[in-house]
């Protein structure tokens, strides 16, 4: 079988509930419509099926792909959260680790999906809904006391930097201890007591991220960013005064992966080309790890191949839950990128290996 075969590929519809992959397609932009581009993506949410039309040969049959869930241009932010992410956050509140990856070509709606518009209730993104979910749960709990800590880091050209540290030149080291696993030495952590406080922490970190101008985007993220929420739950006596014991510790990683696109299309040269190369290598390493975990046949999982996978080692596999949300654009000029993401990258990163 080749990648050009017109075959329905069950790319990510595996039975491994610990790893789920969803795809969201944004609508055509006004600029794309004005330039005469048309949509080459047909979504069938009820079947988890995406049909991709071949822009190079309109007479050729569509290429079909299936995923755990898909969301078209009419999908609502809250439905996306309730159907895909709520269970994962519940597991974090019950003491497990969870990771949400945002992945896709620059300009495909990744920021809208993850951040949305906080001023418009119906358009709030995954991140805000996670924050609200956590603190609403805490407010309704009885005989339990919670501590919610937030940290924020970026991995830029395989160097780890604390986005909440005023010293933006400091590079941090990954360490490992038997009791805590892999951690970042000297990474700052802030106690937060409300949605507003944790949002302020994220805003400070976002302002410190490494961005660069490319042909794809005026301000394209050139680093992987990980916002880490640690939730500690202690049981208390009925009067709420005396701590009995630390009952649960869960961790939620919100991972914004650097823009995924072909180097030639970004116009990357010099330092930007070096950045793009590092990004692609780390994404490949992530793919190797997740593919090994889902495949289940490899005794060796190559966590050490990149800082990203090393850092997330304790939050991938085992009893942890992972959701990859991949964003795509429907315009005909993005055919190669969309085909690559649907037909190769997601299959490779998150699913059983197939002989394409």
UniProtKB/TrEMBL annotation:
<comment type="similarity">
    <text>Belongs to the TRAFAC class myosin-kinesin ATPase superfamily. Kinesin family.</text>
</comment>
<keyword id="KW-0547">Nucleotide-binding</keyword>
<dbReference type="InterPro" id="IPR036961">
    <property type="entry name" value="Kinesin_motor_dom_sf"/>
</dbReference>
<dbReference type="GO" id="GO:0005524">
    <property type="term" value="F:ATP binding"/>
</dbReference>
<keyword id="KW-0493">Microtubule</keyword>
<dbReference type="GO" id="GO:0005929">
    <property type="term" value="C:cilium"/>
</dbReference>
<protein>
    <recommendedName>
        <fullName>Kinesin-like protein</fullName>
    </recommendedName>
</protein>
<dbReference type="InterPro" id="IPR019821">
    <property type="entry name" value="Kinesin_motor_CS"/>
</dbReference>
<keyword id="KW-0175">Coiled coil</keyword>
<dbReference type="GO" id="GO:0007018">
    <property type="term" value="P:microtubule-based movement"/>
</dbReference>
<dbReference type="InterPro" id="IPR027417">
    <property type="entry name" value="P-loop_NTPase"/>
</dbReference>
<feature type="binding site">
    <location>
        <begin position="104"/>
        <end position="111"/>
    </location>
    <ligand>
        <name>ATP</name>
    </ligand>
</feature>
<dbReference type="Pfam" id="PF00225">
    <property type="entry name" value="Kinesin"/>
</dbReference>
<keyword id="KW-0963">Cytoplasm</keyword>
<feature type="domain" description="Kinesin motor">
    <location>
        <begin position="18"/>
        <end position="351"/>
    </location>
</feature>
<keyword id="KW-0505">Motor protein</keyword>
<dbReference type="GO" id="GO:0008017">
    <property type="term" value="F:microtubule binding"/>
</dbReference>
<keyword id="KW-0206">Cytoskeleton</keyword>
<dbReference type="InterPro" id="IPR001752">
    <property type="entry name" value="Kinesin_motor_dom"/>
</dbReference>
<dbReference type="GO" id="GO:0005874">
    <property type="term" value="C:microtubule"/>
</dbReference>
<dbReference type="InterPro" id="IPR027640">
    <property type="entry name" value="Kinesin-like_fam"/>
</dbReference>
<keyword id="KW-0067">ATP-binding</keyword>
<dbReference type="GO" id="GO:0003777">
    <property type="term" value="F:microtubule motor activity"/>
</dbReference>
């Amino acid at each position: 079988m080749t990648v050009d075969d017109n075959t329905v590929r069950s790319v990510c519809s595996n039975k491994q509930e610990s790893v789920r992959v969803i795809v969201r397609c944004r609508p055509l932009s006004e600029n794309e419509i004005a330039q005469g581009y048309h949509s080459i993506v047909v979504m069938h949410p009820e079947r988890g099926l995406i049909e991709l039309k071949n822009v190079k040969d309109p007479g050729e049959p569509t290429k079909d792909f299936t995923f755990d869930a898909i969301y078209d241009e009419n999908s609502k932010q809250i439905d996306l959260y309730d159907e895909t992410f709520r269970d994962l956050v519940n597991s974090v509140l019950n003491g497990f680790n969870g990771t949400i990856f945002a992945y896709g070509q620059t300009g495909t709606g990744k920021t809208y999906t993850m951040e949305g518009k906080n001023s418009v209730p119906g358009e709030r993104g995954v991140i805000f809904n996670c924050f609200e979910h956590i603190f609403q749960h805490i407010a309704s709990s009885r005989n339990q006391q919670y501590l919610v800590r937030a940290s924020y880091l970026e991995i830029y050209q395989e160097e780890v930097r604390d986005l909440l540290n005023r010293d933006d030149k400091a590079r941090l080291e990954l360490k490992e201890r038997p009791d805590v696993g892999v951690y970042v030495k000297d990474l700052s952590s802030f106690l937060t007591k409300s949605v507003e406080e944790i949002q302020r922490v994220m805003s400070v970190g976002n302002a410190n991220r490494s961005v660069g101008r490319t042909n794809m985007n005026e301000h394209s993220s050139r680093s992987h960013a990980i916002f880490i929420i640690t939730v500690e739950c202690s049981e208390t006596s009925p009067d709420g005064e005396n701590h009995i014991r630390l009952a649960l510790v869960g961790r939620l990683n919100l991972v914004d992966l650097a823009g995924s696109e072909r180097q030639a299309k970004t116009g990357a040269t010099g330092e930007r080309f070096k950045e793009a190369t590092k990004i692609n290598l780390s994404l490949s390493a992530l793919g190797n790890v997740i593919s090994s975990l889902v495949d289940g046949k490899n005794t060796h999982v190559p966590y050490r191949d990149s800082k990203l996978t090393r850092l997330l080692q304790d939050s991938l596999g085992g009893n942890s839950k992972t959701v990859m949300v991949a964003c795509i654009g429907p315009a005909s000029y993005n055919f190669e990128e969309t085909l690559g993401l649907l037909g190769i990258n997601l299959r490779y990163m998150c699913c059983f290996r197939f002989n394409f």
